[in-house]
Design goal:
Order of helices and strands: HHHHH
Structural class: mainly alpha
Number of strands: 0
Number of helices: 5
Strand content: under 5%
Radius of gyration: 21 Å
Distance between the termini: 45 Å
Shape: elongated
Amino acid sequence: MSAATEMQENICARLCGMARTDISRVRLIAAGEDFGAMAETELARRRVLVRVQFIQSLTDTELAAVALGDIDLASLARRVWFGLGST
């Protein structure tokens, strides 16, 4: 089974489950048209959420250093991502 087929089956199963409890929600989805743009917006929201959650994990002192530009968070993340080791 292809990955696309498996994803379609998973989505269909969720829609069927939704239909059992509230068919009107499935009708709203069926009437929609611009799901590509909605999906892109949701992906962007999730990327922002990952960043926000990391920022929230920093101490006040670390946040202040990032805010003042003393720490370049993106640069540190790139170093980790590219495997250049620790600071």
